[in-house]
User: Which sequence fits this backbone?
């Protein structure tokens, strides 16, 4: 059982109805001014309490991705309320959220774990990123900057050179990220609790252009071989500058993202169909 006092909230302040739902959760759960309620993308907030047991997100998948940067290292599960367009990661609709929350606090919900990625950068003479270990739930993307020319990206797997792509970008995604940016580039969809790693080049010029799925214990390295700058980003966050000769190393993270679910695991497939084809509705198991 999760105590109501141990629940925090992250919300997208620009999403319609988000502030209304925050107030309804305040009333339903007895949250007060001292409760941990944070705007997504805020830079001015205190860390979650060490004994926080659940973070409710109100928004879309972007809100979840932001909240997960705080939740995953602390092993805090997330319960997503969908106010976004797609909401692959969310669990509840806005209309059901308030009436259903009790079922998620009484101890009957299962915890679904999703694999994450960790990225580090080497060859950084400025030492700007030398101590950084970046975490991503969806994907790590290395690609061209605003300059309209292809980048040369040498990709190695476990120290074996795969190829050098001349492309707009290379996407390295988790199973969760396989339904994100990667799917728009023709990538495959992986089962959500798979820990495999997906490598998907974007807009290649000649050469190998097929997506590749590698085991979870693989080490993927992307070296910038162009003589001009590129960028890399994690989960769609603002781009970071990558200099010629630098190498992005990507492995499976020690952290996992955790989500509270009442729906059975196999509902992912019917939800997937509904969300990729919003005009088509298939029967799913309704949450309480």
Assistant:
């Amino acid at each position: 059982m999760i105590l109501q006092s141990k629940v925090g909230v992250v919300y997208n302040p620009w999403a319609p109805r988000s502030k209304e739902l925050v107030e309804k959760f305040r009333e339903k759960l007895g949250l007060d001014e001292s409760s941990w309620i944070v705007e997504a993308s805020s830079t001015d907030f205190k860390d979650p309490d060490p004994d926080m047991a659940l973070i409710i997100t109100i928004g879309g998948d972007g809100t979840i991705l932001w909240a997960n940067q705080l939740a995953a290292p602390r092993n805090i599960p997330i319960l997503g309320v969908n106010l976004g367009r797609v909401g692959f990661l969310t669990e509840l609709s806005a209309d059901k959220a308030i009436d259903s929350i009790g079922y998620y606090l009484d101890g009957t919900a299962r915890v679904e774990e999703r694999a994450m990625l960790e990225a580090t950068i080497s060859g950084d003479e400025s030492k700007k990123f030398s101590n950084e270990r970046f975490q991503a739930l969806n994907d790590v993307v290395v690609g061209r900057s605003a300059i309209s020319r292809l980048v040369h990206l040498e990709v190695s797997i476990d120290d074996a050179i795969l190829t050098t792509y001349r492309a707009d970008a290379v996407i390295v995604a988790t199973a969760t990220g396989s339904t994100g940016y990667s799917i728009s580039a023709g990538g495959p969809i992986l089962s959500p609790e798979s820990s495999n790693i997906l490598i998907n080049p974007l807009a290649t010029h000649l050469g190998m252009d097929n997506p590749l799925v590698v085991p979870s214990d693989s080490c993927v390295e992307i070296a910038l071989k162009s003589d001009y700058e590129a960028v890399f980003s994690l989960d769609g966050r603002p781009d970071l500058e990558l200099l010629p000769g630098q190498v992005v190393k990507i492995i499976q993270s020690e952290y996992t993202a955790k989500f509270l679910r009442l729906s059975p695991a196999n509902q992912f497939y019917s939800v997937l169909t509904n969300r990729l084809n919003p005009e088509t509705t298939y029967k799913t198991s309704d949450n309480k």
